[in-house]
Amino acid sequence: MQNDMLKCAVGVIKNSLNQILIAKRPVHKAGGGFWEFPGGKIESHETSEQALIRELQEEIGITPTVFDPLLKFPHDYLQYQVFLEVFLIHQFEGEPSGREGQPLLWVDIKDLPNYPVLDANWVIIRELNKYGG
């Protein structure tokens, strides 16, 4: 893995109806207007699990309490590269809300392909469909 690669922790959050939470990126950010799974940058002093908890608290106001690793993979965008560590979140505390003003939606797994998402998210969607979520 290259040193200049942006490392991110991503949460695939499930509710009791087996729906997945997606968030719309703010238009002023890279990839603005596209839907994504919440998460963000892993700081140099953090584990991926610590970053996942911090990012989800900051972005959507929840604290994951029961979660498992889902997959890890690199992805190349035109201007940068990312390495995503994706976690499947089974339980959390709090009520999700867009703390940065971003819309949130609960979506059935089968309907995820109907939303315009960032390219790297297709890998996650394929994985969810492969196992039925």
How would you sum up this structure in a few lines?
With 133 residues, the protein is of the alpha+beta class.
Question: Would you mind describing this structure in some detail?
Answer:
The protein is an alpha+beta fold. It has one domain (6-131): Nucleoside Triphosphate Pyrophosphohydrolase. It is built from 2 helices and 7 strands. The strands form 2 sheets. It has a 4-stranded mixed sheet with strand order 4-1-6-5, with helices on one face. A 3-stranded antiparallel sheet has the order 3-2-7, with no helix packed on it. β5 (63-76) and β6 form a beta hairpin. The model has no long low-confidence stretch (mean pLDDT 91).
Distance between the termini: 28 Å
Which CATH architecture? Alpha-Beta Complex
H/E topology pattern: EEEEHEEEH
Task: Flag low-confidence runs.
Answer: none
Strand content: 35-45%
The CATH topology corresponds to Nucleoside Triphosphate Pyrophosphohydrolase
What is Rg? 14 Å
Q: What's the overall average pLDDT, rounded? A: 91
Name the CATH superfamily classification: Nucleoside Triphosphate Pyrophosphohydrolase
The CATH C-level name is: Alpha Beta
Number of strands: 7
Reported for the largest beta sheet, the result is: 4 strands, mixed
Overall, the morphology is globular
Query: How many helices in DSSP terms?
Result: 2
